[in-house]
Design brief:
The protein has 15 helices and two strands. With about 290 residues, it is mainly α.
């Protein structure tokens, strides 16, 4: 899995650099976008798109522009997440956050630039995808990155700081703030590959489960990880008094829930996608066992 992850990581980073090289002015924006975008990261979301295309026998170049766009949107969300008005973080992936390097105002604009450039890339660099499919995909990207998805989850997350929230609210936060952008690449791959609706729904369920597992693992790493591994100070959720699975269930029960979600996700793949499924199974284990 590590070999595959590295290969796909290199692929999407090379494509993103190719797209960024088309920009030159204003210099602070182009440099800031590169800093935020190429500042490490697992590239999980682009990898999920390539994984889906591989399983369906679709050439990877069908996903290059959209994989890059998804990662740009994810990176913009992290730049804005780190701002003083939100999480006020100084470090991301072991390096100074974008606003600490370029200033708060430029940090906001760099995030804005990544978001808008993502839609430019998706809409103008995807000529190898049928127009009707591309329109559907652009609508999905807008939905899942906006108020109906990631931003909606972020808003409820902010509103919930310092409060005791119920499990339903916590699940909404995780499903939207993190989960929608993990579901997105799998749905895009299913659209490109003309996957039948029932099969697509099963893959979406897998995506939702590993998305939740990913966030639960983040909650655990915020308690049990280290700065060297996760690239930022541990205990930030506690400092902001955020609701998390460990805060509600405790550490041991949270680990049981994580294990259950991983098993359920793997069973969906084993029972319904018996061919070319190794990457999906290995990714579930990777999420379970990751240390950063």
């Amino acid at each position: 899995m590590k070999t595959y992850l590295n290969e796909m990581k290199n692929r999407v980073e090379n494509k993103m650099m190719e797209y960024l090289e088309e920009l030159s002015y204003p210099k602070v924006m182009t440099e800031g976008m590169k800093y935020a975008l190429l500042n490490g990261g697992k590239r999980l979301r682009p990898v999920l798109l390539y994984m889906t295309l591989d399983m369906l026998g679709i050439p990877k170049d069908k996903g290059d522009s959209l994989a890059s766009a998804i990662e740009m949107i994810h990176s913009y969300s992290l730049v804005h997440d780190d701002l003083p008005a939100l999480d006020n973080d100084d470090y991301r992936r072991g390096k100074l956050t974008t606003h600490k390097v370029y200033g708060e105002a430029n940090g906001i604009l760099i995030g804005d630039s990544l978001l808008t450039y993502a839609f430019f890339i998706a809409s103008t660099k995807s000529s190898n995808i049928d127009n009707d499919k591309l329109i559907k995909i652009l609508g999905l990207i807008s939905e899942y990155s906006g108020i109906q998805g990631m931003i909606g989850g972020q808003v409820v997350d902010i509103e919930s700081e310092g409060k005791i929230v119920d499990l339903e609210t916590l699940q909404y936060i995780h499903a939207h703030k993190t989960g929608r952008l993990i579901r997105l690449p799998i749905e895009i791959g299913a659209i490109i590959g003309d996957l039948e609706e029932s099969k697509k729904n099963l893959l979406v369920k897998y995506a939702d489960l590993i998305g939740l597992a990913f966030q639960i693992k983040d909650d655990l790493l915020d308690i049990e990880g280290s700065f060297e591994e996760i690239g930022k100070p541990v205990g930030s959720d506690i400092k902001l008094d955020k609701s998390t699975y460990p805060a509600i269930f405790g550490l041991e029960k949270t680990k049981e829930i994580l294990n259950d979600k991983i098993i359920e996700a793997k069973n969906i793949i084993i029972e319904n996608f018996p061919e070319n499924n190794e990457n999906f199974l290995n990714l579930a284990d990777y999420i379970m066992n990751r240390s950063k």
